[in-house]
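Illustration 12: DUF4287 domain-containing protein.
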Amino acid sequence: MSFQAYLDNIKAKTGKTGDDFKKLAEKKKFLQNGELDPKVKAGEIVNWLKEEYELGHGHAMAIFAYFKGKRD
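Figure caption equivalent — predicted structure in C-alpha cell form:
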C-alpha cells in the first residue's frame, strides 16, 4: 500500500487529513511550530491515535511519519 493510500484510508475513516492531525497534535503539545517535539516518542502518538481515533498501528505510524515530514 502506498503512503498516500494510508492517508486516504485515514481520511475515509476519520474525516481528517494529515494537516488536521497536525493541528490536533499541536494542541496536545506533540508538535511545536509544526515540528515534532524531540522529547515525544512515536508510541505516545500511536497510542493517542489508536485510543481517540481507533486507528490501527500501521495507520497511526503513517500519521507519525507525516509529522516527521514524509509526503510520498
